[in-house]
From TrEMBL:
Location of this chain's protein in the cell: Membrane
Ribosomal protein listed as a keyword: no
Classification via InterPro entries: ANF_lig-bd_rcpt (IPR001828), Peripla_BP_I (IPR028082)
Domain (Receptor ligand binding region) ranges: 3-236
Protein name listed in UniProt: Receptor ligand binding region domain-containing protein
The keyword Membrane is assigned to this record: yes
Species for this entry: Leptotrombidium deliense
Pfam family, one: ANF_receptor
Keywords of this entry: Membrane, Transmembrane, Transmembrane helix
A GO cellular component entry from the record: membrane
């Protein structure tokens, strides 16, 4: 694709089980390109887009630094905490950020005239980012429920919503397993209290709502698109994208 005139893109697949070992091996041709690029008329390496997860270690990163080869982070993970991005020299704008995921939620809340919301997520950084961005939109985050990757807290969390909350809107940025567990537990309590559930569905999880139709009827979902799911209209748009018509560069 001619996204950047004069720039050639290539790829190299690394063995995930031996990430840092293969990363060192892969570095050698990059180093040669970097040296060759010092001569007129030869290809010059201007950067390496690293899509590995977890990220390569500091030893491998130092090899690129020594040769002044920039690393650009563009992993398919859309929920990578900010502290993990600081390792790389650049953060590719094409990768959706956590804030990108959250913006539709604020629009939904405003459309429903809801000014208060709670969030359920699994890292404090996500919860803090959500609250900071919500404040900018004039929305108050009344509670931040940060839960480790476990369903042990599903029951107590559900009881908290039933017994101790007046905030109707609840945003879920979590796995489908907790979402499903939470809905089932609240339904089993036969509570008359209702909530406005908003959930961001990430990765390629399967969401099962059998027997939970009453919740699904009041559930609003935002989806994060992945490359393999892109439709033909977007592919056509992407293939015709040029620096001069790319609005994201403005």
């Amino acid at each position: 694709m001619n996204l950047i005139p004069g720039v050639r893109f290539a790829s190299k697949v690394l063995n995930g089980a031996k990430l840092n070992e293969t990363a060192v091996e892969t570095f050698e041709p990059f180093a040669e390109l970097s040296r060759n690029g010092l001569k007129d008329g030869e290809l010059k390496l201007i950067g390496v887009i690293q899509c590995t997860f977890p990220a390569i270690n500091e030893h491998v990163k130092k090899l690129y630094d020594d040769y002044k080869i920039p690393l650009i982070f563009s992993a398919p993970m859309v929920t990578v905490p900010e502290f993990e991005l600081s390792f790389d020299d650049y953060y590719a704008k094409a990768t959706p950020t956590v804030v990108t995921q959250m913006k539709p939620v604020y629009s939904i809340l405003k459309k429903l005239h809801l000014k208060d919301v709670q969030i359920i997520t699994y890292t404090h950084s996500f919860a803090d980012i959500f609250e900071n961005e919500a404040n900018k939109e004039g929305i108050t985050v009344t509670n931040k429920h940060v839960i480790e990757i476990s369903l042990d807290e599903c029951g107590p969390l559900a009881n908290t919503f039933i017994d101790n909350t007046t905030t109707k809107a609840i945003y879920i940025l979590y796995s489908p397993s907790l979402e499903n567990c939470l809905f089932k537990f609240i339904q089993s309590k036969n509570t008359t209290k209702t909530f406005q559930w908003i959930s961001t569905h990430v990765l390629d999880y399967k969401y099962e709502y059998k027997g939970l139709e009453s919740f699904v009827n009041n559930l609003i979902v935002t989806n994060i698109p992945f490359t393999e799911k892109l439709d033909q209209h977007f592919i056509k748009y992407l293939e015709n994208l040029r620096p001069e018509n790319n609005k994201r560069n403005e």
